Amino acid sequence: MVRVRLSDKRLDAIRPKNRAYDIWDSEAPGLIVRVTPLGHRSYMLCRRMPGKTNPTRRLIAEVGAVQQEAARKIARDWTALVVQGVDPGSLRMQQTAEKPVLTFRVLAETYIKKRVRALRRGAAAEREVRQLIDRWGKLPVPELTRTQVVAFVEELGARSPSMAHRLFAHLRALFNWARERGTVEVSPCDMIRPGKLTGNLEPRQRTLTEAEVRAFWIATGNIPYPHGPLHRLVLLTGARLREVADAQWDEFDLTEKVWNVPPERNKSRAIHIVPLSDEAVRLITALPRYRYCPFLFTADERNAVRNMHTPKARIDDEMRKVLGRQPTPWVVHDLRRVVRSRMAEMGIREEVAERVLGHGAKDKLVRTYNTYSYLPEVREALDRWGEVVGK
């Protein structure tokens, strides 16, 4: 029989045939890759087992679940057992019966508790990790293969490439964390490049036209608290949707007309001071306040508002009534691009417009030596923007 050195390149080149066949490794005696007509590939040990007349195969793992060197080590260890008169298949069954099965749900819940909740955007990350739990929660961790991950990324990428990239990033981070702790030996995410499966993500270029901004302002005026005023404040401040949705009353000084976004909710991880225009102050002053709720925007008088999909659909519907047509697809984050683009049109300097969005200087030397906050200029810019929006 022909023996070859199993490598990633050779394994990727394997193609199924009409009948199952074996590829023998040249480095570990007895180690084979079994290829089925459906294309399934598995590492196996093929030897004459104790009490058997003919060579018998014993499953080691699916290709992709373990690296080649790990498969070779297992094959050599099992060969040593065979020499001692022990069938590794029966031993493995005994060990499996005695050892509790680690499911993906248990691993992911531990990851959420020990790692995700400590992240700056932990709440959003936890929601996305839980989508992975919904997919694979009951599956034993060793049974999650690269093939399954690829299928998941491709399936989700056909609907939402950005979501496919984000969920894959969470899955890869989860397994890297588990591997660092010694919980798992290999990751099914190794060698997967989501850009090759779904295409690389292109930076969004969508911005709303002047007519669409006007339609948005009228539409949100027709939508009651909390979502109408919430989305209006996003446009007035240029802040991120989640920053506004999670805003708390004690972050605002309406006398000084400022909003202090704390570092744990700001992408730059520093306090972001947002000057408030007269239009923004009027909007905030008109909001209801609830005794046991610290948040500006709430649906249950206790917690920050969460559901954003339904209100967005309502805004689109109201905009359609104003425009006389369905608005070109857009997302709420595009409002930040509206603010930035319109400020450029208004002649506001780049460094000031960037500070409006909470961005620091792009150049590292400038960030190091220019520590000026541009707060007076940012206030003037947002005051002018508030006048434009409120007309």
Helix content: 40-55%
Largest beta-sheet details = 5 strands, mixed
* Low-confidence parts: none
- Average pLDDT number: 88
Rough outline: elongated
CATH architecture of the largest domain: Orthogonal Bundle
In CATH's first tier, which class of the largest domain applies? Mainly Alpha
Q: Give me the number of helical elements.
A: 17
User: Hey, roughly how much beta strand do the residues contain?
Assistant: 5-15%
CATH fold title of the largest domain: hpI Integrase, Chain A
Number of self-contained structural domains: 3
Structural class: alpha+beta
Please identify which CATH superfamily of the largest domain we are dealing with: Intergrase catalytic core
Record the strand order, biggest sheet: 1-2-3-4-5
Through-space gap between termini:
82 Å
What are the secondary-structure elements, in order, as H or E? EHEEEEHHHHHHHHHHEEEHHHHHH
Nearest-angstrom radius of gyration?
29 Å
User: How many strand segments?
Assistant: 8
Properties at a glance:
hpI Integrase, Chain A, 391 residues, elongated, alpha+beta, 3 domains, 10% strand, single chain, five-stranded mixed sheet, 48% helix, 17 helices, three-stranded antiparallel sheet, Double Stranded RNA Binding Domain
